[in-house]
């Protein structure tokens, strides 16, 4: 994080303020749905309008969940971009990097909405968007636990935990380059976290405490020195809890 010291205080405040502001707006939106909009969200008829409404919910939820964990990378990117611009390299706007990153999670939101539609059609979700099948809940937990131990998880997590290395090896100049870098980093974050997002169907897609718990886990896994080891331990716990739920459901 020493690179971020090269950022002027004004730029640092602007970037942190922007990320925090967008994150706060996303969480306020989710909170408003919980307080006053759940009746509308529980409509059982999947019309085009309802699908779009659910897609919007997922997209905003992913923004609120993932922006905090990418903040260190964004700050380091901004510092490197500023230094490159001072050396005459075409500017690589930080906003383009963030937009590329969020595009990946918005595309994931489309897949998540489609998955929710399929689960709902199969009568595997309650009106509160929670898995009402012990087998489904157990399967999601066990899958998430196993994924914590797979090599692809380690590879993606290393990219997320080492923003300096990522930027050094993926650097591209200009607006298109910054956007492509954001896409690449978003893809690594998706590879790191997509199975964990399936756990939203275990604790409830609109359960704010559950959403916050997953958000915190993703953040800590990326920034703590032993986050990778902690993730494996948590993976064992997920498998164990999934096994208990499966046993009790038989």
Quickly describe the structure.
Helices cover 80% and strands 0% of the residues.
The low-pLDDT segments are: none
List the helices and strands in order.
HHHHHHHHHH
Termini separation comes to 50 Å
Q: Tell me about the largest β-sheet.
A: none
Radius of gyration: 19 Å
* Overall number of domains: 1
Can you count the beta strands? 0
The overall average pLDDT, rounded, is 89
What is the beta-strand fraction? under 5%
Rough outline: globular
Q: What's the tally of helices?
A: 10
Oligomer: single chain
**Helix content, binned percent:** over 70%
Class from helix and strand fractions:
mainly alpha
SSE layout:
Layout: H1 9-41, H2 48-86, H3 94-121, H4 134-147, H5 151-161, H6 163-170, H7 174-197, H8 200-203, H9 208-223, H10 227-249
Helix pairs in contact: 1-2, 2-3, 2-9, 3-7, 4-10, 5-7, 9-10
Give an account of the 3D structure.
By secondary structure, the chain is mostly helical. It contains ten helices and no strands. α3 packs parallel to α7 and α5 packs across α7. The protein is globular. The chain starts with 8 loop residues before the first helix and ends with a helix. The relative contact order is 0.14. The mean pLDDT is 89.
Tag the structure with descriptive keywords:
single chain, 250 residues, mainly alpha, 10 helices, 80% helix, globular
